[in-house]
Amino acid sequence: MRKTSLPLLLVILGLAILLVGCSGTQQTKAPAAENLMVGMITDSGTIDDRSFNQGTWEGIVKAGTDFNFKPKYLRPAGSTEADYDKEIANLHDAGYKLIITPGFKFENSIYTAQEKYQDSKFVILDGLPHPGNDYSKAKIGPNTVAINFAEHESGFLAGVAAALQMKTGEFGFIGGMEIPAVQRFNWGFQQGLKYANNNFGTNITIKAENFLYQGTFHDVAAGQHLAAQMYDRGVNVIFASAGNVGIGVINEAVARTKGGHPVWVIGVDIDQYSQGYYDEGKTKSVVLTSAMKCVNQAAYDMVKSVKEGNFPGGKSLVFNAKNDGIGIPAANPNLREDVISKTKEIFTKLKEGQITVADKGEGLLR
Known about the structure:
Blueprint: E1 38-41, H1 52-67, E2 72-74, H2 81-93, E3 98-102, H3 107-116, E4 121-125, E5 144-149, H4 151-166, E6 168-175, H5 180-200, E7 203-213, H6 220-232, E8 237-241, H7 244-258, E9 264-269, E10 287-293, H8 295-308, E11 316-319, E12 326-327, H9 337-351
């Protein structure tokens, strides 16, 4: 998740991604891939965070199944550059020649590692390698690929779908850290709500007090507390783009719904429907839909490119609607069929450039 606009040319790659739902390729199991060793280092959180880390790891695991190798992940002891440097070195020294890192916090470490370990390949998701805070010196080495996503388009789609489903009500947003990737989700979401109000006759209201950032991606309790306050103010739906903070939002929604006061959540990054179950049969969920970006597919495709000998080193890639890199889940049990149909039409318009979603916050809340 980068902190400023990319100073380098963004190269849009025509990747074979199956959307809507980031469901992965139809690759059949391949023969053993000799010396294909792929490792991942987690950002804040774990590989079962039901968000960014998990989505990335799932893509790597699927590649391991299809290409017959056993992937490995390491969880740093902390979240400093030194912690990340240490785990990159550990993977490299153990023979892992493709190292995948999810999150902007790896930007400085990958900047250094790509030069230090030129015999390895690196993928950074939601980031751009650069020294310190100086983006003017950003550099993507020939052994590195930087991948970013059009979160504003994903947030837009989720906003339209939720507005169409609810028709009326008050919506809110809880972000983690106030960084561009999270902001773009927020800004796209607001634009989606306004688009639905202006074009489909919905009546969704938003207030500044209900669009906020908690400041971390790990504080589950804080996420639940903020959600409780928001629901108490009359909010019906909260879009949570906040890692484990968002899990707290879902937990609060589950508790209220079980108590007879149903409320809703919009998930993020991956399909979070299963996280919101509130019935014993685990079929009913408080997650209305999820604003997804295909981190699993991005990770998978980078492994596949190494195996096939066409790793796009030195490039910055953008996953967006045009290359099916973002969307909402393929299955949305809480959305009516007419809502799903209309949302697919909107996705097609995004894909064809008939609708443009701003990635800036001018005229929008926070």
